[in-house]
């Protein structure tokens, strides 16, 4: 019985923390996301190898695979957040500027149209923010692989390392 009460208390505490984190989350502005597709996959074990190329993708348990199109207006931003699995981001139009919450210098990482980014910041200790610091719309198409049933995106509080 003590284990049951203790477990319930821990779960209750986690729920309070989740609500508090959501309340402190930084809102996006000039940012919209359109889900193009989502599919539930069983365990993935894919390997491709040639003389000049190698790929290995392996999961344990089921995964949800999302494809989304994000549009960010000039001056817009995503808000601080993280994802519970990796994201493969393609910059389709404009220039994407990323900031990492654990970078004390708040150094931007800049990616023009036609480039790709791997985002593997998959927990609350590694939040990031996407900004459009250009004069035209920024459009990205992203494939995300997350544990089945997990949220695609988790909003986070401002880590305080950037002054914007």
Q: Can you offer a commentary on this structure?
A:
Helix content is 14%, strand content 47%. It is mainly β and 164 residues long. The protein has a 5-stranded antiparallel β-sheet with strand order 1-4-11-6-9, with no helix packed on it. Strands 8-7-10 form a 3-stranded antiparallel β-sheet, with no helix packed on it. A hairpin with a 4-residue loop joins strand 2 and strand 3 (54-58). It is globular, with a radius of gyration of 18 Å.
How large is the radius of gyration? 18 Å
Unreliable residue stretches? 10-21
Order of helices and strands: HEEEEEEEEEEEE
Residues in helix, %: 10-25%
Shape: globular
Distance between the termini: 50 Å
Write down the overall mean pLDDT: 90
SS field, number of helical segments? 1
Kindly name the structural category.
mainly beta
The spatial strand order of the largest sheet comes to 1-4-11-6-9
Q: Please give the largest β-sheet.
A: 5 strands, antiparallel
Q: Count all strands and give the number.
A: 12
Approximately what portion of the residues adopt beta-strand conformation?
over 45%
Itemize the secondary structure elements and their pairings:
Elements: H1 2-24, E1 29-41, E2 45-49, E3 54-58, E4 63-77, E5 81-82, E6 87-93, E7 95-100, E8 109-112, E9 116-119, E10 128-131, E11 138-147, E12 154-155
Antiparallel strand pairs: 1-4, 2-3, 4-11, 5-12, 6-9, 6-11, 7-8, 7-10
């Amino acid at each position: 019985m003590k284990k049951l009460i203790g477990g319930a208390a821990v779960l209750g505490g986690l729920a309070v923390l989740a609500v508090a984190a959501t309340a402190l989350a930084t809102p996006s502005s000039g940012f919209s996301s359109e889900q193009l597709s989502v599919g539930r996959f069983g365990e993935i074990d894919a390997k491709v190898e040639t003389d000049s190329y190698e790929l290995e993708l392996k999961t344990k348990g089921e995964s949800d695979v999302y494809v989304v199109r994000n549009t960010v207006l000039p001056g817009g931003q995503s808000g601080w957040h993280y994802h519970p699995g990796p994201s493969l981001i393609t910059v389709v139009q404009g220039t994407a500027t990323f900031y990492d919450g654990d970078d004390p210098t708040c150094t931007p990482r800049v990616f023009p149209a036609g480039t790709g980014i791997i985002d593997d910041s998959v927990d609350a200790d590694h939040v990031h923010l996407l900004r459009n610091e250009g004069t035209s719309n920024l459009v990205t198409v992203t494939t995300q692989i997350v544990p089945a049933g997990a949220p695609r995106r988790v909003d986070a509080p401002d880590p305080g390392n950037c002054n914007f």
